[in-house]
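Spend some time on the protein that follows and explain the fold to me:
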Amino acid sequence: MEMDQGIMQKAEVLIEALPYIQRFNRKIIVVKYGGSAMVDEELKHHVIQDVVLLKLVGFKPIIVHGGGKEISRWVNKVGMEPHFVNGLRVTDGPTMEIAEMVLNKVNKSLVQLVNELGVKAVGISGKDGMMLKCRKKFSGGEDIGFVGEITEVNPKVIYDLLEKDFLPIICPIGFDEDFLSYNINADDAACAIARAVKAEKLAFLTDVEGVYRDFEDKGSLISEITVDEAQAFVDGGSLGGGMLPKLQSCIDAIQNGVNRVHILDGRISHCLLLEIFTNKGIGTAILRDGDERYYHPGQ
């Protein structure tokens, strides 16, 4: 009997995914959601579909999101004049008010998308359950307003939600010892949360394909790299601008208990599924030294 080739390929894909499903069953995976994947409606739906699928096959996903572009849009919309120090937007009191409103709006829209796909999501900020305590972050000694640096993570509220089978969606607003609100860089928040819950995986959705040995050479994408190799890479100073702090954050996360960090191109539909459930993956995975590599050329 002639079998349709497409159907057989589907079976192969599912079989290839099986060991990964077994390995990560009941494990926590933190997804840092940002960039184009948050702006483009079709990509947004695909990311949410991916996360819902991870949840339904037994993972425990947590979404951490930013909303910088959306905050800028609203700051302009209300006619406020943004101020910059060292290339960073100064978050004064009125800007902080808008940032918190906008981030909560983005947060609930993501909750709604997950709910629509039949999985119960709960949206919280770092203020809920006193989760993200922070202090004022300075940029080169300059005051940039209500921008926070996380000093402490209390993950109890996250564990409570996971235990009751909810999918937590977290926006990076923290508080200081005087309970003032602070905007936190979403990458930093995702790393700190992944460390606090000892996540099995931390995946960053970005607008680049991954980490390149040579940024000019698109054929030099690194599929897997150990922490030591990544650190040498950061210290070598050959990285493109935005990738340096991201890679350093990834290294810190692994040194603090996260098992594996993935840098993915959020502009590729279903990039999360491709990275997690296939042998080759599509982005850059950063692993502990001595950790087994998944990808073996020719496999």
Q: What stands out?
A: Residues 295-299 have pLDDT under 50 and may be disordered. DSSP finds ten helices and 14 strands in the chain.
